[in-house]
Specification:
Elements: H1 2-21, H2 34-46, H3 53-73, H4 83-108, H5 114-126
Helix pairs in contact: 1-4, 2-3, 3-4, 4-5
Length: 129
């Protein structure tokens, strides 16, 4: 149980807080500022040891999409013109994986199912972006 608590406290709670609070207007991920994207990738990389099987498999693809969007956004490299859409797709895959995993961990810890609530709200909102 200690390992589940550690995962929940170090990865899933900060992730859910970021998801709810950081992009305050719940804008489309391709429109996140460079600073917002950097904060998110730092959160993931600094806590990758707590990821479950699904999110850890997605990390490399998400990281690559992040780097490609930086290439397009910061360096203005037009060869990466598809990177905003790719980042958005990878972001949603990662977010859904983390929310799914955190739902499972919260159940094991007998915590309220906040991850499922956030997931439902986020996916409903994401469909409208």
């Amino acid at each position: 149980m200690k390992a589940y608590k550690e995962r929940y406290d170090n990865l899933y709670i900060p992730f859910m807080n970021w998801l709810v609070h950081y992009p305050l207007s719940w804008i489309n991920p391709r429109k996140y500022t460079i600073r917002e994207r950097q904060a998110f990738i730092k959160l993931l990389l600094d806590n990758s040891q707590f990821m479950g099987k699904k999110s850890s498999k997605l990390l490399i693809d998400f990281y690559n999409a992040h780097l490609d969007l930086d290439e397009f956004d910061i360096r203005k490299n037009q060869n990466y013109f598809k990177s905003p859409a790719e980042y958005e797709e990878q972001f949603y895959l990662m977010a859904n994986a983390l929310l799914e995993e955190s739902t499972q961990v919260s159940a094991k810890l007998k915590l309220p199912d906040m991850p499922a609530t956030i997931s439902a709200m986020y996916n409903r909102r994401a469909g409208k972006l």
